[in-house]
Amino acid sequence: MNLRFISVASALVLSAMLLGAGAYESVAVAPNFHGAPASLEHARGFYHATNPGMFFRVLSPALQLFTLVALVCNWKPAGTRWRLAGAFALAVLADIITFKFHYPRNSILFGAPLTTSPADFDRVAAEWAAGNYVRIAVVLTMVFLLIVSTLHIARQTAPGNRLQQM
């Protein structure tokens, strides 16, 4: 194995984890936000020790770091440079979406008084869910770019490949 391949494969694994966690939130978590205030009272009680944000606050920066390392390790061979740069940009975009779109809605869903109108809570929950589909599409595109990059690097660095030194 070589550093070029390991760096991209590591970024791919982390991006797949992010994709899976985002999809899980859309399928298993977000539908439970509707039906406030009772649903949010239960969610708030469930998340008393930790919440999904704790996982994402570790995973997302790690993904960005590993994707940046993969980009640096694969800068010279032009075949993967732009795909990895695109994957890194999408990782940053996913965080921008999280901070600018999801965090304000999380504050409403998990911090606003439960006396807020149930219709307002349901609207915010629907916005959060729709925004999560956009974020999943961004992450899915990033995963695709990393898969293509991983395959390309695996072919370039395979034993006996005369392009290996490039």
Structure description:
The protein is mainly alpha-helical and 166 residues long. The chain has one domain (3-156). It is 79% helix and 0% strand. The protein is built from five helices and no strands. It has helices at residues 3-29, 38-46, 52-73, 78-111, 118-156. The mean pLDDT is 93.
Brief sketch in words of this structure:
The chain is an all-alpha fold and 166 residues long. 79% of the residues lie in helices and 0% in strands. Helix 1 (3-29) packs antiparallel against helix 3 (52-73), helix 1 (3-29) runs antiparallel to helix 5 and helix 4 packs antiparallel against helix 5 (118-156).
Q: Secondary-structure element sequence?
A: HHHHH
Strand content: under 5%
How would you state the average pLDDT, rounded?
A: 93
Report the strand count.
0
Q: Outline the biggest β-sheet.
A: none
Shape annotation: elongated
Q: How many discrete domains?
A: 1
Task: Specify the structural class.
Answer: mainly alpha
List keywords for this structure.
elongated; 5 helices; mainly alpha; 166 residues
Walk me through the topology.
Blueprint: H1 3-29, H2 38-46, H3 52-73, H4 78-111, H5 118-156
Helix pairs in contact: 1-3, 1-5, 3-4, 4-5
